[in-house]
Amino acid sequence: MRVKEGSFLWYLYLDKIYCLLSFRNVKALLEYFRLLDVHRKNTLNDVLFYHFLHYVTNLKSRQIRMVFDMLDWNAVGEIGFEEFYLLVCILLSHQNHLEEQFMYCHSRHVFRLLDINGEQRIGTTNFHMYRFLFNIKREQLREFFHNFNITGDHLNYKEFKIYTIFANDKAKEKQRMEREKVEKRKRLKSQLKKIVYQIGVCQRFLKSNLFNKHYE
Amino acid sequence: SSDHRSSGQASGHNGLPNGWTQATPPQPRLSMQLSEVHGNWGQEGYGTVYETYGRNSQRDLREDGDKSISLRDKDGSKPEDLDKHTLLELEPPCSSSLGIQLGEVASESEIRNEEHFSESLSSAWEHAGFPLYLAEQQKKLPLPLRELMETEALEILTKALKSYRSKIGENHFLTKELQRSVEELQRRR
C-alpha cells in the first residue's frame, strides 16, 4: 500500500516516536476533511470515503470497503473526523515503515479496530485480513503464538499488547541489523579505497626507482 | 521513506511548507504609545476606538503564542520614527479618514523631524496593516497548501458526483448538495 506522491497526505509529517500528527497538521487535515464533508454532517459517507481513499492510495476496491467497515465501528454508514484522523495516521505510519511502532503506541485503538465482532478478542483471520494495513507477517504471528504458548487462535487485549511489544522489538532489531550492514559496507568500501590508493603509490614508487636505475 | 519530505517541500519542522510566518510587534512600546496617543488626542471618540482596537490586536497577537518579528529589524528606522510606526500599525487599515486625522494629530503633537515624519508616514502606511494581516493569516492555512487541498478535493468530489448521479440520480438532494460544493470549488480555482 502506498500513499500517492504529491497528494495532500503525502506532505503531512508523522511524528516518529508517537506516530501522531502535530497540531498544525491536524488543523490542516481538519480543513481538508471539511472540504470533503459536502453534506455538512462532520462525516464522510461510504461513497465519499471510497473516492478519497481511491485517490490518495493504491488500495483496491475490496480493501477500501474493508477499511470502511473497520472504521465504521457503529455501522451507521459514515465515519467522523476521529476515525478519519486515525486512518491518516495508519496510512502515514505504513508509508514510513512505522507500523509496529504505531501498533505499540496505540494498541488499544488498533485492538478495537481489529475486534470487528466486538468480542474483546481478535482472531488470526482478522490479523490476516488487515495485514495490508498493518504489515502483520504470517511467520511472525506463528512465531509469537509458539513462543508465548498462546492456545487457540484468538488474542485478548493483554496478549495483543504483548504481541505489539514483540513485533516492535523485532522491527527495531531488523532496522538495527540493516543499519549495521550499511555501515559495514561503507567501512569495507573505504578500506578498499585505501588499499587501492596504497597499491597505486607503491607502483609509482617502483616505476620511478626502475626508471632512475635504468638511466644510471 | 522520509527523504521525500526534505526534497519535496521547504523544510518546516511541522512538515508544512514554509508559508507559516511569525509576527509580534514589540509590545511594551505599544502599550506606552497607546497611553501617549490617548493623552495627546484628547478626543475620546477616536482615542477610545484607537485604544480598543489597539488592545484587541495586542490581545489577539499575544494569544497566538508562537510569533516574533522585530519591526526595528524590518524597517531599520530610528527609535523616534519607530514610535510613529508602532502608533500607526495599530490603526485599522481601511479607515483612511482616521488615518488622515491621525496624521494631522501626529504632526501637531510631534514638533521635531517633521520631514522625516512625512516620509516615514508613507512607508508606515504600508506596514500599518501588515502585522494585522499576518495575525489573521496565522489562523489560516498557507496558500500553496490550501490550493493543493482544494485541487485534490475537487478531483475527489467530481468523481464522487459521477457515482452519486449513477446510483441515486441527478435530482436527489444529496446529488444537488454535492454538485453545489463542486461548483463552489470550481469557482474558487
UniProtKB/TrEMBL annotation, chain A:
Residues 167-194 form a coiled coil. It comes from the Eukaryota. One of its GO terms (molecular function) is calcium ion sensor activity. One of its GO terms (cellular component) is cytoplasm. This is EF-hand calcium-binding domain-containing protein 9. One of its GO terms (biological process) is sperm capacitation. The gene is EFCAB9. Gene3D superfamilies: EF-hand.
From TrEMBL, chain B:
Residues 1-28, 56-86 are annotated as: Disordered. PANTHER family: CATION CHANNEL SPERM-ASSOCIATED AUXILIARY SUBUNIT ZETA, CATION CHANNEL SPERM-ASSOCIATED PROTEIN SUBUNIT ZETA. Residues 19-28 have a biased composition (Polar residues). GO terms for biological process: flagellated sperm motility; sperm capacitation. It comes from the Eukaryota. Residues 57-86 have a biased composition (Basic and acidic residues). InterPro entries: CATSPERZ (IPR039019). This is Catsper channel auxiliary subunit zeta. One of its GO terms (cellular component) is CatSper complex.
